[in-house]
Design brief:
This protein is an alpha/beta fold. The chain is globular and about 75 Å long. Helix 8 links the parallel strand 4 and strand 5 (189-193). It has helices at 2-7, 17-23, 49-57, 71-83, 96-105, 122-134, 147-153, 176-185, 198-201, 235-249, 255-266, 268-287, 306-312, 328-337, 367-372, 389-401; strands at 89-93, 113-117, 138-142, 158-164, 189-193, 211-215, 229-233, 292-296, 319-324, 342-343, 353-355, 379-383. The strands form 2 sheets. A 7-stranded mixed β-sheet has the order 1-7-6-5-4-2-3, sandwiched between helices. It has 2 domains: 15-266, Aspartate Aminotransferase, domain 2; 269-401, Aspartate Aminotransferase, domain 1.
Length: 405
């Protein structure tokens, strides 16, 4: 028994993923609670005026104000650092879009250049295409799957590149290593939105990226309870660049939401693996259905970027994009016949959710760009949940079989 204890891991970073997800970052108060405590307070008190002055100068450790940092948020951040291979530090935010905004705006200034794919979530595209140019930041949008376009677009002026992989909603796969190598040649930072892959299936920093962002609202919570986001990267970037920006602009995560996210992390690996199991079976079912025109799933060898997805991701994920035979009315008819799968623009939930991207998540994207990206009026995006896969297939099968009835 003694020998076993002496050889067991003594640091949280040495534990395996499932253990990190349950135990990582936990700080117990003087009451020794089993579940993490929720510190809902906005402020903190000091033992003396000297201690308060020293804390504001950074001369002693401790909390000042929950807009800056909070014990419950710190536990969530530390657990995410343990999960995200290569990350040294992290800051939680009020939403995924606050994380994207913070990761970009904290490091950019007038005169900088940013390169990004056209294949982005609608709100991300709005930041890149509309907000950044207002501040004198030049933007180049490209086909992110074409490495030659990255080579041409990245210049000595490029300060940052940003991309999603898999992309929303058409599940395009970007080559993290190759893009990072090109960006680093000119000193540009690489920011990857890893929300579709989750930290269970893909580790962008280990593949060459500098910064990873998540909408923790999605798989990390995984149960539709709250909003949240997080940015992870090097200690230098997070502490010197990101933290001051977030501190003074205020996109602070609620401690209650941070607690929900901690609870979500405990089951993240279990949920994602089950969702992948279900997604693989559903993708195979859809691929053989006469009412389906095209199926896009990174875990299927019919996906145009399957080889790259297999290299970067351990599994294909929980998202499936597919086009139905017909037009928007046909897509709507299928959605309206579903009884188990819910119509919702959210994703990563325990419940299976489906949306029509061109009229919801990407409704603000111009028609020409949508057509270029293959976001057609007959495309649907399915986020596969934890239900019995046979029930899901029966529900989808009924909706599709009635299409031509």
């Amino acid at each position: 028994m003694t020998d076993k204890k002496e050889t067991a891991p003594t640091r949280a970073s040495e534990y395996r993923t499932a253990t990190k997800l349950v135990r990582g970052g936990t700080k117990r108060s003087q009451f020794n609670e089993t579940s993490e405590a929720i510190f809902m307070n906005s402020g903190f008190v000091y033992d003396s005026a000297e201690q308060a002055a020293g804390r504001f100068k950074g001369e002693n450790d401790g909390y000042i104000y929950s807009r800056y940092a909070n014990p419950t948020l710190s536990m969530f951040e530390e657990r995410m650092i343990l999960l995200e291979e290569g990350a040294e530090a992290a800051r939680a935010t009020a939403s995924g879009m606050a994380a994207v905004n913070g990761a970009l705006m904290s490091q950019l200034k007038a005169g900088d250049h940013v390169v990004a794919p056209k294949a982005l979530f609608g709100s991300c595209l709005y930041i890149i295409e509309t907000i950044l140019p207002r501040f004198g930041i030049e933007v180049t949008l490209i086909d992110g799957t074409d490495i030659d376009q990255w080579k041409k677009a990245i210049t000595e002026k490029t300060a940052c590149v940003f991309f999603e992989t898999p992309s929303n909603p058409a599940l395009e796969i970007m080559d993290i290593g190759a893009i990072s190598e090109l960006a680093h040649k000119v000193g540009a930072k690489v920011v990857v939105d890893n929300v579709f892959a989750t930290p269970v299936l893909q580790h962008p920093i280990a593949l060459g990226a500098d910064i990873v962002v998540y909408s923790a609202t999605k798989h990390i919570d995984g149960q539709g309870r709250c909003l949240g986001g997080i940015v992870l990267g090097s200690e230098e970037f997070v502490e010197d660049t990101l933290a001051p920006y977030l501190k003074h602009t205020g996109p602070a995560l609620s401690p209650f939401n941070a607690w929900n996210l901690l609870k979500g992390l405990e089951t993240l690996e279990l949920r994602v693996e089950k969702q992948c199991d279900n997604a693989e079976k559903i993708a195979a079912f859809l691929s053989g259905h006469p009412a389906i025109k095209r199926v896009l799933y990174p875990g299927s060898d019919t996906h145009p970027h399957y080889a790259l997805a297999k290299r970067q991701m351990s599994r294909g994920g929980s998202l499936i994009a597919f086009e139905v035979a017909g037009n928007q009315d046909d897509a709507f008819s299928i959605l309206n016949r579903l009884s188990l799968v819910d119509i919702s623009n959210n994703l990563g939930d325990a419940k299976s959710l489906i949306t029509h991207p061109t009229t919801t998540t990407h409704s603000s994207v111009d028609e020409a760009t949508k057509q270029e990206l293959g976001i057609t009026e007959s495309m649907l995006r399915l986020s596969v949940g934890l239900e019995d896969v046979d029930d899901l297939i029966e529900d989808l099968g009924y909706a599709l079989s009635r299409q031509n009835a």
